[in-house]
Request: fold
Amino acid sequence: MFGGGTASLTITGGTIVLDADSDGIDINGSVTMSAGMLIVSGPTEQMNGALDYGTFAISGGLVVATRSAGMAMAPSQGSSQASLLSTFATQPAGTLVHIESTDGTAIVTFQPSKPFASITVSSPDISADATYTVTVGGTSAGTSTDGLVDGEYTGGEVVDTTTSSQAAGSGRGPGGGPGRP
Reply:
């Protein structure tokens, strides 16, 4: 966990993988990300978030964060890279969650290590003018690295349909500021 005061965090590459029991990234200030991967699994308590920040400007890289539905946040509105945020019924740890555009283009398949009821994804592959489906369950013959699963995803149940504009207004949950619209 990173945290405190008016801190800032800059991510310009590399891979950060967190298995969080409380806030994953906890910056009471600004996060700036231009490249790399940020993967957060957890927390499961409603009062904690996988991402907790003042502002989060993203221009590149991959963010995948799962957690309870409380304090669900996505990178800030106005970021040059689009993000998605989806909430749904709680799923058991290890359940695959898959996001793809309605034209069938896969964005991510992820296997969280903790129970989860929401997912945030930011990727250069997300378009501001496309619609995406979020599917849970299902299978993949691919391998998992840090929870990211490669290979073809099949089956599962669609639990949400979303756009990047629905994530753009997301903000702070219990801890400060407005919540998701």
